[in-house]
Design a protein that fits this description.
Structural class of chain A: alpha/beta
Oligomer: heterotrimer
Shape of chain B: globular
Radius of gyration of chain B: 14 Å
Number of helices of chain B: 4
Radius of gyration of chain A: 22 Å
CATH architecture of the largest domain in chain A: 3-Layer(aba) Sandwich
CATH architecture of chain B: 3-Layer(aba) Sandwich
Distance between the termini of chain B: 9 Å
Chains: A alpha/beta (223), B alpha/beta (135), C alpha/beta (574)
Helix content of chain A: 25-40%
């Protein structure tokens, strides 16, 4: 699921400097799960922002709300009334939520309160790690279910680089070398022969983000 | 006019802090009248938001009384609240609040004297520090 | 303030037998009576007395008020009185709040004017807070009088018997081929002359023949789930189809393991371990003989190389030293760091042993062993002579050296803790809820622990624990009914993001994730029929009301019925 992290509060205060009344809106889906932007975080951030502004001698009125899921037009519609009254909207949903708001409220500036980081897994409680980069053409069947596009610092597709030392990536000691992990995994599932099968360069231009934003169309689902 | 009597909000867990607070009176010791005691079933009930809310609503200082580590009757309520305080300290620093305005105090039910002393110490510290920057 | 609602607040002022007189004067009573939405303000000299509470009850029967505030001492006092007298008030007991103006105000603020101002502020705030109260019901669930005992050791056996005697059906599960455990190794009790073996056999027979006890041997646990009144244990079976046994409560008596401590010794028939000592004392004639038929004249017990914090070795050493001295004419030495005799009657036996000539030697540095003419020479530095400025080394030529078996957590503990979702601290023994008060309870309601799985202990103490745990189970099950207040956490399934935070953080394993939600934040709908979304759910019988889940929930889907965020906000002045 999408994982995000709250922006440093000083950066947010910077965006909000020109405004005196804003709507702070969270999202109870992905960002709630990683404790960055759910209803609870809305209350917390609102309190912190109000106090920071009061300390700086410039009050800030904050209307608080939280979308069930901010990437869905129906849910964002529900904010209509509150949004009509404010100078700007601060969203602590992921980048998608922020843009959905911007689309729905074309006249109101919308600011992001979190940095959307990656699609990742929960490694342990409170620790999330990057797992998928939405490259657009999944090759996990060739790498034993471990992704070199997301987890290799150089996005290599055919084995480790010379910097792989004792299972660690050369960029940082505590980052495992994903090709070591892929090797171990392929061996464990009896598919080591895949290491010898050459994976050609990805068609970044056609499958990935590289030549423009992508979309998925399902004619069978269109109303 | 500034308040000369620092307002302290004390979140007291029912298994330790609140009983210790009751004991203060029984011992004939004193508590400042500007102390407000908030009773919670476990320190883990207290979220980062409550700590900020206390400050936002005029507290000059916030004390959290929880069980001694390894003695929490809900296993880790006291550790959980401590971790949350770490987050709040980070936020407090950035929004202009001194770190001394929030403190965790581990007590047991029979630590009436310790409770009174902790409150008095915080009261004196806050008097030196001055009222909350919000005022 | 919810101004559209018309609250009717009754105030009961407890004068606490005159101790609050200066504070609760006429002016104060007038002030209180004048606060918004107060319908009446009654006074009593001692509200928590039976008479005081009776008056309170009758006053509330008039229906004038729909919520109440008690002005007086600590809320803990009133909560206990209500409970002690099993008070049934016309008003739901959760529609009461207490303004503590005694312990923390009148007695702690010595300036009377200031105390009065403070009291007024607290009372006014408490009265305002009543707007957020809502009645909390009491639930009664029928729980079958059946329990599961896991572990066929003597502790499990004793617990099963105690439960069966209390008319509770027991299913006793053991991994082994037969019940019994390590107790059979003991030859003698330390505090009574009975022979352990026959007593032990009797217990085993009683369990096997008891109509209310069903023993399942060779039972391997595959899974445990459920809650008080409905625990289900799945056993491993052929073709993956294991039997499911049910119980209202689970009592763990899975024991501990032992590892013979061979540090510093070498293979020789003169080194033995406690079970062999017990066997020799049980079976040996007047003079003890070793394997080769040589008569045993000198026995040395080596303690505290392992098990330093456990008293079992000490107790057995003293017990056996006395037997060796008295019945077999041996010379006995007990070599230890410290002798632990904190067992009923053990101090006396220790003294007796010393008077009979058993020599106790204390050491700091571990003893060294060597072979001298077919005997083991135990060389140890005697600690008490150190005061004289020198360490005096003692050499004991022994026919028999009794080493220790190190007590270690049962290898099953990890599995049990995992299956039952109870904590397993670093030391490896199953954790009890609170060692002073609730020693035999795990922190999951309906799960009990007794004996060595909790901590290795002498047989007598383990048996007491077995009875205590059985007593705990009986207390919960005896009426066939479990009653509890719904003063617990409650989750709104429609708001649940299924982030699993509450599920992971609940210290009492009271939260499950089940399909019961009508809607879900990840979907815009379009599902038909009986389809339900998975969401977290608090099992009300299991919840202790600590509120940790409430504060952890990122979507604020959880409410604590008896202390909502709205109440806390009001108290903070929001």
């Amino acid at each position: 699921m999408i994982k995000a992290e709250q922006k440093p509060v000083e950066e947010i205060l910077d965006f909000l400097d020109p405004y005196n009344k804003i709507l702070l809106v969270g999202c109870n889906a992905c960002v709630a799960v990683c404790h960055a932007g759910g209803e609870k975080e809305v209350g917390l951030l609102a309190s912190a922002l109000r106090m920071a502004r009061k300390n700086a001698g410039k009050r800030l009125e904050i209307l608080e709300d939280c979308s069930t899921r901010q990437c869905e037009p129906e849910f964002v519609d529900e904010l209509g009334e509150k949004a009509g009254d404010v100078e700007a909207i601060l969203s602590i949903a992921c980048g998608v939520g922020v843009q959905t708001l911007a689309k729905r409220f074309p006249e109101i500036p919308v600011y992001p309160g979190v940095n959307t980081k990656f699609m990742g897994e929960t490694e342990e409680v409170g620790v999330w790690a990057e797992r998928c980069q939405a490259c657009g053409n999944c090759i996990l069947h060739l790498t034993g279910g471990i992704c070199p596009v997301a987890r290799c610092a150089k996005q290599l597709l055919n084995g480790p680089c010379g910097g792989s030392q004792e299972g660690n990536c050369e960029i940082k000691k505590d980052v495992p070398c994903v090709w070591q992990q892929i090797y171990d995994r392929l061996k464990a599932i009896g598919q080591l022969h895949r290491m010898e099968q050459y994976i050609p360069a990805k068609k970044w231009g056609q499958e990935s983000r590289d030549s423009g934003p992508r979309s998925i169309v399902r004619e069978d689902l269109k109303l | 006019m500034e308040s000369l009597s620092p307002r302290i909000v004390a979140f007291c867990c029912d298994k330790s802090g609140y009983v210790a607070a009751d004991m203060v009176g029984k011992l004939g010791m004193s508590l400042p009248e500007s102390l407000e005691v908030i009773r919670v079933p476990c320190a883990g009930r207290i979220d980062a938001f409550h700590m900020l809310q206390a400050l936002e609503n005029g507290a000059d200082g916030v004390l959290i009384f929880a069980c001694h580590e390894e003695n929490c009757q809900s296993l880790s309520g006291n550790l959980i609240v401590k971790a949350r305080m770490g987050y709040v300290y980070g936020m407090m620093e950035k929004i202009g609040f001194e770190r001394e305005r929030l403190e965790l105090c581990n007590v047991a039910t029979n630590n009436g004297a310790k409770f009174a002393e902790a409150v008095q110490r915080k009261y004196d510290d806050l008097k030196r520090l001055g009222p909350s920057p919000l005022k | 303030m919810r101004s559209s609602e018309d609250f009717r607040i009754a105030v009961f002022v407890d004068r606490c037998e005159g101790t609050l007189d200066p504070l609760l004067d006429e002016e104060m009573i007038t002030y209180i009576s004048g606060l918004p939405q107060v319908v009446f303000c009654d006074q009593d000299e001692n509200l928590s007395s039976p008479q005081g509470l009776e008056k309170l009850t009758s006053r509330l029967t008039t229906g004038q008020a729909d919520r109440a505030v008690i002005v007086g001492g600590s809320p803990r006092v009133y909560e206990q009185s209500f409970r002690r007298l099993n008070l049934e008030t016309p008003l739901n007991p959760y529609m009461f709040l207490v303004a503590n103006v005694r312990e923390q105000v009148a007695w702690a603020i010595h300036d009377t004017e200031r105390a009065r101002e403070k009291a007024k502020a607290i009372i006014a705030k408490t009265i305002k807070e009543t707007q957020f109260l809502s009645p909390i019901g009491r639930e009664k669930v029928e729980i079958p009088k059946e329990a599961l005992v896991i572990g066929g050791s003597i502790v499990g056996i004793r617990a099963a018997l105690a439960l069966a005697e209390a008319n509770i059906r027991v299913i006793l599960l053991t991994r082994a081929k037969d019940i019994g455990g390590k107790a059979i190794q003991l030859a003698h009790f330390y505090d009574r002359p009975d022979d352990v073996s026959s007593w032990f056999m009797e217990q085993v027979e009683r369990v096997k023949n008891h109509p209310k006890i069903d023993v399942k041997t060779s039972a391997e646990l595959k899974g445990i789930e459920g809650y008080l009144g409905n625990y289900r244990v799945t056993l491993r079976g052929p073709l993956g189809k294991g039997e499911v046994v049910k119980g209202s409560a689970v009592l763990l008596a899975s024991g501990y393991d032992v590892v013979p401590n061979t540090e510093g010794i070498f293979g020789h028939r003169c080194f033995i371990f406690p079970p062999q000592m017990e066997a020799m004392l049980r079976d040996g004639g007047e003079s003890l003989k070793d394997e080769k038929g040589k008569v045993i004249k000198t026995v040395t017990f080596i303690l505290d190389l392992v098990n330093e914090t456990i008293k079992i070795d000490s107790a057995n050493a003293v017990k056996n030293a006395l037997l060796l001295k008295r019945d077999h004419g041996c010379m006995v030495y007990v070599v230890c760091r410290d002798l632990k005799v904190s067992l009923d009657g053990m101090e006396k036996q220790y003294r007796e042993a010393r008077e009979m000539g058993v020599i106790f030697i204390k050491y700091d540095n571990p003893p060294r062993f060597s072979l001298v003419n077919g005997q083991i020479n135990v060389e140890v530095g005697e600690v008490s002579t150190r005061m004289m400025g020198e360490e005096y080394t003692v050499s004991i030529l022994s026919d028999l050296v009794v080493m220790s078996e190190q007590f270690v957590p049962s290898r099953d503990n990890e599995m049990l803790a995992h299956l039952l979702d109870i904590p397993l601290p670093q030391e490896g023994y199953l954790m009890d809820d609170n060692p002073q008060f609730t020693q035999v309870r795990a922190n999951r309601r309906g799960v009990f622990l007794a004996g060595g799985c909790r901590y290795p202990q002498p047989l007598d103490e383990a048996l007491v624990e077995a009875e205590a745990a059985a007593s705990g189970v009986t207390e919960l099950l005896s009426r066939g009914l479990y009653e509890y207040d719904l003063a617990v956490a409650e989750i709104d399934p429609g708001k649940c993001a299924v982030c699993l935070t509450c599920f992971r953080v609940c210290p009492h394993s009271a939260i499950v994730v089940e399909p019961y939600a009508e809607k879900n934040i990840y979907s815009t709908g379009g599902y038909e029929g009986d389809f339900k979304w998975r969401a977290a759910r608090v099992l009300p019988t299991q919840c202790y009301g600590c509120g940790i889940c409430v504060s952890s929930c990122p979507t604020k889907a959880i409410t604590l019925k008896h202390l909502t965020d709205a109440e806390i906000s009001l108290q903070l002045g929001a």
